C-alpha cells in the first residue's frame, strides 16, 4: 500500500497550491509545434534588453571557481550595495532572488497561529510562504486595484507579525506615494515587521514615490526587499536582498541557508552595479514600452490599470482564457492572472518595441476572431 505523503505533510503545506510561473518558451514550442525562435515571452516581467555585458563577463570569469563554495557572506556584493545605498553592510541580507528574502522574513517572524497581512491582488509568494509555516494570511480588499493602506493598518491585531506592501505591486502595477507609506508606517505598532517589496522601484518615475531605504532610520521595523531580476536583468541567476535595521538583518541571516547566493550570481550582481548605462536603458525601454502598450490598448478599446512596473494588466473581457490561448497560438506568451482573482485581465510584460508591436497586432487579431 502506498503512503499518502500529502496527508503526512505539515498542516500549512497540505493546503498549498504551487506557484504558477509564466510558460517557458520551449514548453509553448513543444505543446503547439511552434519554432521557439519565433516565440516572444512577455509573461514574467523579465528585462527585454538581454543581460548587461558587464554582468555576462563577470559571470563567465566566475565559472572558473565553480568547484569552490561561494562566499557565504557575499562580501564584495554587500560592500558595493552598502556604498550605493548609503547603509552599513550589517543592514543587508542577500537572498536567492528576493523571493528568498520574503520567505526568510516569514520563517523568521511568523509561526502557526500568527497573522500575516497583505493586499488583495498582491504578489502570490506572500500567501504561499505564509501558509507553509502554518501562519494565517489576511488578505485586505484592494482599493481601485491597489493597496488600501488604511484598511491594512486597521487589520493589524495582537496576532499580526508581518505586513507586506508591494510598491509597485505585481500583478496590478499600482503604487502608493511616499506620504501614504509614511502615514501607514506611523500607524503600525513598532514590533510588527513591515516588508516594503520594491522589486520594481527602479522603474519609478517622478519623486512622489518613496525610496524605502530613506525611511529605515525612522522605522526600525521596516524591511525593504529588492531584486536584480527586473531592471538589472539577472532573473536566471536569482539574486535579491533585504535592507533593514542591523537587528532584523541579524535575525534574517540566521535563518538563511549558508550559501544561498552562488558565486556566479554574486559576481554578476556585483559587476552589474557598475553598469549604470544598462539601468538607464532598462528604464528608457520600459518608459516607452509602457506608453506604446497603453496607446495600443486604447486603440483596441481595452481598459488597463496604469502601471508603475515593467508590465501592464489589461482587461480583455470575460474570455480572457481564450485570448491568452489565441496569443499563444500566435507565438506570444503573456500571463493569465485568474489565479490572482483577476479573471478578465492578462498581465503583459513590457518588451522591446517590435515585441510590443507584435503583441498588440496579435491581440487585435485574436479579439477580432473572437468577436467576429
Ligand atoms: C519579481 C518580483 C519579485 C522578485 O523576484 P526574484 O526574482 O525572486 O527576486 C519580488 N516581488 C515582486 C512583487 C515581484 O514581482
From TrEMBL:
Residue positions where N6-(pyridoxal phosphate)lysine is found in the record: 230
Keyword Transferase: yes
Top-level taxon in the UniProt lineage: Bacteria
GO molecular function, one term: pyridoxal phosphate binding
Gene Ontology BP annotations: L-histidine biosynthetic process
Similarity-based family: Belongs to the class-II pyridoxal-phosphate-dependent aminotransferase family. Histidinol-phosphate aminotransferase subfamily.
Descriptive protein name: Histidinol-phosphate aminotransferase
Lineage of producing organism: Bacteria, Pseudomonadati, Pseudomonadota, Gammaproteobacteria, Pseudomonadales
